[in-house]
Structures are given as C-alpha cells and as structure tokens.
Specification:
The chain is of the alpha+beta class. It has a seven-stranded mixed sheet, with helices on both faces.
Length: 174
C-alpha cells in the first residue's frame, strides 16, 4: 500500500482537521515539527491557521499524502521566497508522516513527491529545509539526496538546558 499525494488540495474541514490531527500526533510522538510533547490540537491550531492563510495568499503550497482510507498520513508545506535574490529556491517545512506509518518508506515517498512538485514550480532550482539536531534527521534527509549546508549549534531550545542544532539541508533540483 502506498500514499496518494496531492499538491494544493481543496482545504475542506476534513482536510484541515486531518492535518491538525497529524501535526498533533507527530508532535506527541516526539516529531520535530515545531512543538514539544505533550501538545494539544488547540495549541497547534494557530500555526495551522497561519499556514492556511499563507496558502490563500499564494505564499505557500501544501502537499498532502493520503492513505488508502483517505486519511491524511503525510504533509509538507512549501514556502516561496519574496526576496528577489532568493526566488530560485523554495523552503520545505512541517514535513510529517503519521507515526502509524513510520518505517514504510512513506517519508522517502513524501520527499520524492515534494521534489517532483517543486520541479514544476516556475524558476525553482532547489529545495531547502531545516531540521532539528539530536534525532538523526540530517542522516535521513541526506539519504534522500539532501546535503547539509549549514548548522547553528544550540539554536533550538526544546527545554531548559536541552539545546539542539538547527541544521540546514539543500536539495538541488537541476
């Protein structure tokens, strides 16, 4: 079984709630997606609303992976640069695969679908993403073709006394 990926799906209540549930479940399973467990849907909702507003304004796009039952199982958001000297690359963030689907290759599928989608964006030559150190995420992204191009030691504080590196990864599309 594989996921079905859709770029720019219609934002229905079911999709919105599916992304919110995914984000909550990933966060509470220890995923590095902007929150530290435990976290509730109500705490995540304002961030999702900001993402959806940026989509409505054309600044962001959404890639969704749905499982065979139609449930949201994976997401990645694209953010476009407004600075004239950086419009040739796109930022990929809030990259998530539901914990129940971990280990099935869906993360690789999501990143491949994101790269395919980005190749279709006018003028985009690379995908950039940031990840939190201490979890080995840079090794996973590296195995998917991304290269580590920057690291800021201790830039992310997940708890008092628990600092992680902010790692920048890049995937050239050309």
């Amino acid at each position: 079984m594989s996921l079905t990926f859709t770029l720019d799906p219609a934002v229905t209540p079911a999709l919105r709630d599916g992304v919110l549930d995914l984000w909550t479940d990933v966060s509470n399973a220890g995923g590095a997606v902007g929150f530290v467990a435990p976290v509730s849907r109500d705490e995540i909702r304002p961030d999702l609303v900001r993402h959806l507003a940026a989509m409505a304004e054309g600044r962001n796009r959404l890639l969704v992976g749905q499982d065979a039952s139609g449930q949201v199982a994976a997401t990645a958001f694209f953010a476009f640069n407004s600075h004239r000297l950086q419009t040739h690359w796109v930022m990929l963030y809030t990259v998530m695969v539901h914990p129940r689907h971990q280990g099935k290759g869906y993360g690789r599928d999501l990143l491949a679908a994101a790269a395919d989608a980005a190749r279709g964006f006018d003028g985009i030559e690379a995908i950039r993403l940031g990840c939190r150190g201490g979890l080995g995420l840079e090794h996973f992204y590296g195995s998917c073709g991304y290269k580590e191009v920057g690291r800021v030691p201790g830039a992310i504080r997940v708890a008092p006394g628990d600092y992680r590196d902010d790692i920048t990864m890049l995937l050239p599309l050309m």
